[in-house]
Amino acid sequence: MKRIFLLISILWLGFLQSCKEDLAEPVVNFKTSDFNADVAIEWFNLERTLVKSTPGFSPPVAARSYAYASLALYESVVPGIRDMRSYSGLISGYTNQNIKTELGKDYNWELVANACLANMMRSLFKTTSTANLDLINQLEQKYLLQSISKDSATIQRSVQFGIKVAEIIYAYAKTDNKEEAYLSNFPDYSIPTGPDKWEPTSPTNPKPLQPYWGEVRPFLIANSANELIQKYPPLPFSTDTKSLFYLQALEVYVYSLNLDVESSRIAKFWSDDPGLTGTPPGHSMSIAGIVLNKEQADLAKAAEVFSKTGLAVHDAFVSCWKSKYYYNLLRPISYIKKYIDPNFTTLLPTPPFPEHTSGHSVQTAAAMAVLESYFGANYSFTDNTHESRTDIDGSPRFFSSFKACANEAAISRLYGGIHYRHAIERGIEQGTIIGNNIADIYLKK
Questions:
Q1: Mean per-residue pLDDT for 177-188?
Q2: What is the pTM of this model?
Q3: 3-state class (DSSP) for residue 444
Q4: Nearest Cα to Cα of residue 135 among 147, 158, 118, 152
Q5: How many whole angstroms separate alpha carbon 400 and alpha carbon 207?
Q6: What element of type H or E holds 53?
Q7: If DSSP states are collapsed to H, E and C, what string results for 386-440?
Q8: With contact defined as beta carbons under 8 Å apart, do 37 and 305 qualify?
């Protein structure tokens, strides 16, 4: 009889406990890897639209916005990646102990990422149009409405956590003193003079763009160290027709006069001019998204890959701009008009800043080095970044490797008449070092 009573008591207690659990908040224990990469890919695609259509987002400024948005994404979802750690203490000036989840509480990491990126976009693009703000709101609502989490407490907790992380990362971003860099792309600057020095290439742009960007805080100090800048100097300036400097200018001239259809297409495909595209760093972020989509990556993988790609393009622009204003070398169009052909014209307009090193080369090589570290040296992919454009032939381009992609992006500037080969090749080397440094940041616990 006692045994029967005990059994009944146990069953009754179990029933009461199950009732309590039904009334309590369900515990699902989501992991970041339970969600696919779509939320991250869509937000960075939207960021390219915001960069394109918000005044002042020149390539260096755009690279900064991609970097801090991608860092925020990673920091918002890393608590749900059990074998990965925060960037805290691993990058310049970022030591943060405030990004903590509630112990024993569940989080929908897709909603965390969604809320975080929505708020980062509003903070980074304060001066964007009402139409763009509507796009931000629409994408944010899309993921809220399709959420697999139906528990209101989990949804609210997830959204609030994403907002909190966005606020923390944006506060960190502001400490680089470039919060409103989009308002001052052409500050006062005393242009050095001399036969080898940069001079304006267009009367509409008499000032050089972001002459002090080389002083911006990098994520890794080594990426803008003087030793790196001085490792890749330009060729010695000369007007002697037998000198290497003259011959490299002559190469630009000959290419410009004899461009075939394919070279012209390559030059335009990679130009990524501000106001028409998400700028060159946006192209790199697009390729990261293309590869993640091809791999059907989960959100954990996407957050890690996007974060390192973003950090790489940011540091690439800091380092490259430090080189540009350290050497202040004149552009091919200026040299050729003076010493080879006064009527020389180029396929693409020359942007308003010094020559050496090539920004396309440095940033693309840096981004591709990061992607190679994740997907391998022989990874092939198709870049369809510009397939919807009608102003150029934006047909998708196939690449057998990330290096092949970086090399094409770099050489496109020779085809466009923008850079000497030496600035292109040294830029690839400089960018590869930067990308490898970022790739080597150890995020495993």
A1: 97
A2: 0.93
A3: strand
A4: 118
A5: 40
A6: helix 38-53
A7: CCCCCCCCCCCEEECCHHHHHHHHHHHHHHCCCCCHHHHHHHHHHHHHHHHHHHC
A8: no
**Rounded-to-integer distance, Cα 378 and Cα 400, Å:** 7
- Asked if 399 and 380 touch (Cβ cutoff 8 Å), the reply is yes
Residue reference for tokens 């990058």: 91
- DSSP H stretches of helix in 78-221: 109-124, 130-145, 152-174
Count of C-beta atoms within a 10 Å radius of residue 22:
8
30: closest CA among 139, 147, 160, 118?
147
- Short-list 52, 198, 202, CA closest to 128: 52
- Return d(Cα 312, Cα 298) in angstroms, integer: 21
Domain ranges of the chain: 26-174, 193-439
Tokens at residue 381, please?
Answer: 């992919």
Is 193-439 CATH 1.10.606.20? Answer: yes
Terminal C-alpha separation, the chain = 55
Two structure tokens written together for 363: 């940033």
Whole-angstrom Cα distance, residue 55 to residue 176?
A: 21
> Could you read off the pLDDT of 88-103 as tens digits, one per residue?
999 999 998 778 899 8
Fold of the 26-174 domain: Vanadium-containing Chloroperoxidase; domain 1 (1.20.144)
Yes or no: say if 238 and 332 are a contact pair by the CB < 8 Å rule.
Answer: no
Gap between the Cα atoms of 353 and 198, Å rounded: 8
Q: What is the pLDDT of residue 265?
A: 98
